[in-house]
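Re: the request from the purification team.
They wanted to know what the chain is likely to look like in 3D before they choose a buffer screen. I agreed to run a prediction and write the result into the notebook, where they can find it.
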Amino acid sequence: MSEREFIANRIAVLTVSDTRAIAGDKSGRTLVERIEKAGHVVVDRKILPDERNQIADQLRIWSANPEIDVVISTGGTGLTGRDVTVEAHRDVYEKEIDAFGTLFTMVSFQKIGTSAVQSRATGGVAQGTYLFALPGSPGACKDAWDEILVKQLDYRHMPCNFVEIFPRLEEHKRRK
């Protein structure tokens, strides 16, 4: 670890499911537990049905909120007709973090082999907020958090991390 001080991120968690409630939301609970254990703050948590417009609207609300740095969704990233989370995320992204999905696939391949090809995990940026869409299984949430996000959301992680570029995410909007 570097000599940098830890900076806690403010994170919102969204579970996308037509059938789950908070009490039975194992994937959302997995994320909340890991986020808090890492020293970050969960500022909001919701469950929404697999409805593209509702998901995109919630992502826009959270992205516009200056009290939220990161949004992590779980569920709706598969290949079936009701899996629309990735499309909703892409409706909101200003920039996609292409390598997030690639790296998640690499991590998943080590755990589940070629079944990793069925995941469409994605990441992007909107209004200075990071947005990540993870599959709806607790295992996938653990893998994404433990292998990628816990490091990239830690300012002390070197040689680089998402936190250190927060101030520059919206530099294109500044007056010249």
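For the purification team: The helical segments are 26-37, 52-64, 85-92, 98-112, 138-152.
Please add any questions underneath this entry.
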